[in-house]
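=== Structural record ===
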Amino acid sequence: MIEMAAFSNLVHIGRYAVKYIDLNEGDHRIIVLPNGNRSYLRLDDVAKDNVVVTVDGETKCLWLNHRAGMDVAEFKLIRVGAEVTRYHLGASKYSDSHIRLKGDARLSVAPAGVGWKLPGKHVFPVPEYQWDKCKVHPYDYDMWLQEVIYGYHLGIDLYAQRGAQVVSASDGEIIAIRHFDPTHQKEDYWGTMLAVRGEDGFVYIYCHMDYFEEGITLGSIIHAGDPIGSVGKMGFESKPIPPHLHFEMLVLENPRNFRFSFDSNGRFLPDDVNGFAVNPRHFLVEWYEKTGRKKNTS
């Protein structure tokens, strides 16, 4: 379960809940755990590459450098992650509409010691992928917040051989499909796209697939591990970019309103869905390591 915390000093979280909280420097929240224990969280300082937080008197710096894995800190009672800061606003309509920050920084908060588990079944979306061996791109597997041609990169790219199978990461319902015809449409860095409203509350976005599996239709119910398409290059066929799956996770208050939206500036997230993109990296690592393989987080 995921939630956007309303403005209140008290923030309640469940055992497997992740909450995303927008704070200004100096703001504090009291995090209430399922057993009634409370943890005091304060945002002390914000820079482009890091934030400083204090939890129950212990101060730590969270670096927005996900290759180093220092964007999350475990405290005695809670885990705190750094998502984005005010310094990531203003790059493009795509970035701003997918960030929608209402403060100086966005933090994720969850109970300590439970990993990145979510309710329900989840699987890694590219079964053939070998995270430690795939080095075809200098930013492979850690592109969250990298600066790219259309703003900040608000997903994770999973590079694999063209044609590698893509499966649904979760149980859910298909809520949007975008077909892309490279013979009649201009390359736009997105191409073929699929959106699934997961039963866990996230909306999952899959991009660049060369084709969809038979039966992938709007409103279809799918399950974690169901084939949905193949890794491809749709949207950037002529560019010197290797085939990959661009994978996003969104938190939306109104997922039923979701559609893939484009204008003359490119892709954007519509206002009426009322939400934002979150960093999928740690969830992907959790699902990958469930297969018995380990990811080198250095």
Q: What stands out?
A: The chain is about 5% helix and 35% strand.
